[in-house]
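Justification of resources, computational component.

The compute hours requested in this renewal are based largely on the per-chain cost of generating structure records like the one below. Each record pairs the submitted sequence with a full structure-token output. That output is archived, and it is also reused by downstream analysis tasks.
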Amino acid sequence: MNNNNQTFHELERVIRLKPEDPIGYINRGSYYFWRVEYEKAIADYSKAINLNPENTEIYMIRVETYYIIGDFDRAIADCDEVIRLDPGYVSAYRWRGSAYDIKREYDKAIADYTEAIRLDPECPLAYTDRAKTYERKEEYDKAIADYSELIRLDPDDSEAYYDRGKVYEEKGEYDKAIADHSEAIRLDLPEEASSYRSREDASEEVLSEDMKVFVASSYRSRGDAYYQKGEYNKAIANYDEAIRLDCPDEVYTYRSRGDAYYQKGEYDKAIADYDEAIRLDFLCYSGHSRYRRPSIGYVYDVYERTRDYDSAIKGYDEVIKLNTHHVMAVYLNRGSLYMEIGDYRAAIESFDNAVRVCPNYETDLNDCEFVFRGMSVVEHAIQLLESIVSNLSESDPDYYYYTALQSLFRNDGRSAEKAFQKALKLGYENRAKIGRHLENLKNRK
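The structure output for this chain reads:
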């Protein structure tokens, strides 16, 4: 700390002696930057720019600081000025493109990356940035072309092979994805570790921590491609390697391996992997992606096949306690399971909670659709509610309450609100529960 204070006092002294020299402000700004005092750093960089407004390097230093604090508009403005001063400044186009990318102005980002490539056709970062933006736009062929160009520039670029393999997965070209992931593994796995499968700890001796993470990710992705091809043994073997190398997304890997075991009918192993995923992340159904398969639905099916309904219900209860944003799917699954075993009162309660916790019904329901198999669980819920309503009198507040629930499942918020209000007028006993539904309706999108 004393050395830091001494450095700071020296920087202050230089500025006092030469207040018109921008170098002093740049140096003090850098001092603030490394101390994570970004606003003070920006203030000093701004003083330096005022003293030397033609110096593009100072602008670019300030651009990086704006970027870090998330002020992308001011970062773009600085890049604009740099490009005005020096139209051939490649990094200014890259930084501005990245800021546009984060702002989801993808066409502007691509235009800047393209200009950076025109100015420097062998700029690998520009190709990488543009490829990832093309991915976000789902222009997969263009992304593949950019990754292919990276590989042409550097045939040993394992990351380019990995990234291109992921795009091939998105396109459903699994053989090409497997080939790219295999090449990434070959490039990153040192020759000394080629026999590591017969030596349990050899990879730990040879591979650095960063390399282990990357190789593990390549194994996991290759496992995904094999899974999509229905080659479950090969998928499991790759997930095994990813787990042994401490894959950074262990929850996903255990889930995926559990899915592969499920497809093979090895339900005990599937359940063990789902349990481990839950232990690691509390919820085996996490994230949204074409390759994140319906593990909750599989767990339900596994327990149904093994007739272990108590375990299934306990599992759903634990997930619900965590109050995750996927809880609608869990309530629906639990309701379906209660219907399966004939506990209709508990099923209704679960279905009631499913629509109560769902502010964005259409999106959340679409997210849930692939969880279920056979007849839609929502249709099951509506049929159950209809059977209850058909046995009630219109003078019974329950009639309107359950009618409101049907309307919620049909995404008819206006009808639901009217029915809830009618139930209240007739003296529905649990006014707080209707209040929660009405509050949620205000937020429903």
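The mean pLDDT is 84. The chain has 25 helices and no strands.
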